[in-house]
Predict the 3D structure of the following.
Amino acid sequence: MSHDMIPQSLFEACAALPGWNKQLRLEAWKSWQSMAMPTIRDEAWKYTNIARLEKMVFTEVTSTPSTLTLNDIPLTIPENRFCFINGVFNTALSTDLTAGTYLLSKSAWPHIANKHQTPHSYFERLNAAMLNDGLYLDIKSSTHSPIYLVLLQDKTNGLSQHHLRHRIKVHAGVKSEIVIVDWGLADSMNLTTYIMDIELDEGAELNCIHLKKAATKGYHIRQTHSHLAKDSHFNHFNFDFGAKLSRNEISAHLNGEHATCQLNGLALARAQDHIDNQTQIGHLAPKTNSVEQYRGIIDDQACHVFHGHVLIDANAPDSIANQQNKNMLLTSTGQAYAEPQLEIYNQNVQCIHGATVGDIDEEALFYLRSRGLSDEIARQLLIFGFARSILETLADKNLQNELALWIKTHLAIDSELILTAVDF
Amino acid sequence: MLTIKNLEACIEDKAILKGINLNIKPGEVHAIMGPNGSGKSTLANVLAGREEYQITAGTMHYQNVDLAPLTPDERAHLGLFLSFQYPVEIPGVSNLYLLKSALNAKRKHMGLEEIDAIDFLTVVREKMKLLHMDDSYLYRDVNSGFSGGEKKRNEILQLLLLEPSLCVLDETDSGLDIDALRIVAQGINMMRNEKRSILLITHYQRLLDYIKPDVVHILSDGKIVAEGDYQLATVLEAEGYEPFLQKKAGS
Ligand SMILES: Nc1ncnc2c1ncn2[C@@H]1O[C@H](COP(=O)(O)OP(=O)(O)O)[C@@H](O)[C@H]1O
Ligand SMILES: [Mg+2]
């Protein structure tokens, strides 16, 4: 078992940073060292091989000052934002929202630590040991919604690593929206763990939109865990533009009656990208409802893994779960693995699921061409149309439009193709 | 002018068209009738350029241009339009977008500029009114979740908008109730002029009561077994296909 990827000296440098709880770090560090790195023999990592990580040695603690600005992201980032550069909070780029409800860094630590006294998975343990920074959002009103959380990654000389953990609490009856932008600028080699714990009190509603464009050679591991009280609603949108390895573990625990969640995702994998989406939904109370739509567009030699676990507890009668996963393979060398996993312990529920992997629909292609569209345009239209079905589930039309542009650029689709509903 | 000579086509080594001869002059309306599986849709698809079908013999010329080497979009630019028996559902692509890009593709081929967005809406709404279609059709995804009748209407909308010179209508009447049939037939009749050729593929005489063809062909097992004027459709309606098929067997 090798844990050389994070040298002891790096941990010690990290542990020496003032203000954070050294004892918790040390415990996490030991528990991380006692655990073997997951391999393809582990069910949850069956299609995602991270063995190469073990051969790397990450040396940089926190990076040198960066000259990055928000203009480096091709997206309008409005006020009410918290920006982190290379894993560390950046005051200059952020809006001053710290008064009262938003706690940062050291003052957030007790709230964040509270949530991970016993870090569980391999990367969660590493995150607890090496944490750079974090944020505690205690959302008591909709005043600042939407809140943007921006994570920028710069090019670094060595192999760098960043570890963030946020905690978000939405109070009873409050509606809010959070947009998380993960933007890796360069093709630098880095390892990022990014964990988010979300709690929704009774009747709360949170839209959480996650845009991730990690560095092309980056290993980016994200976990988003949500706990939903009675009558609360959690809508999570996961737009992933790929990385060397991009892993998203998303869980929703529907703990209270009538809680609902929507987990939607779009994976755009190209070149050698590997995107691994692992979702877990627990129906733990009666009359809970989940809707899940994940799509992948896979080009070149890229790969998309989707594993969707749905548990319906014996204690969750009259619940409804609907899961759909569709993949479009643009080449014969791309790969898609679609794995629904249903565990149902109550017969009085409705559970629908479907998973498909296919090429571009030849009939649709012929139909469009018979209307005078060229092969190229017709293909682009079908590819974009496939993505659009997920894009359209976003309520915010401006964001939809900006993302449409990202998607077109990413897929090398003619930007003249005017396709979103708001264009008309 | 469409000229088809001794056309044979197969799919996956199965011969379907077994020597079709057909001449349609500008301004003429021809009907092709025939039992299920006789090859009507195959003929329509081969004309439109569907690549799954292989042409094993014969020729197809439209306006003296050999169609065989042309792609489906090149054939569309030449003025050919196929109204599909089963219009394809395309989720994620709005009907409006399809209509607009199809029209602009045609304009581009004619050396015209792209149509202005407002002008486009004016034109398309005018056509939709003729077909009793409301605005919501524009914003729905192409044929997605449309009923059978709505899909057929949507085909005719494209036809009215693109104003092709050769219209191939594959069972446009199936799935339409009597009111919708009348509306769709009116739309097709409006398109009728001395320059345009129309090939109606149908099962029943019903549509031909509204759109009177100049020539009726009966297709059976990949061959045209009988030809005549409108009266032939009436005979067919009264006696069924059986006598024609026997005639073929006897010949
Ligand atoms: N894609 C296909 N693959 C295999 N056989 C086909 C295909 N399309 C048509 N056929 C066969 O060709 C014959 C003619 O079909 P079609 O042209 O659809 O007939 P029609 O339109 O007259 O009902 C039928 O026997 C049908 O089964
Ligand atoms: Mg047919």
In short: The CA atoms of residues 62 and 138 of chain B lie 32 Å apart. Chain B touches chain A at residues 48-52, 71-73, 75-77, 81-82, 84, 87-94, 96-98, 101-102, 105-106, 109, 117, 138-139, 141, 158, 162 (CB under 8 Å). Chain B has one domain: 2-250. The longest helix of chain B spans residues 95-109.
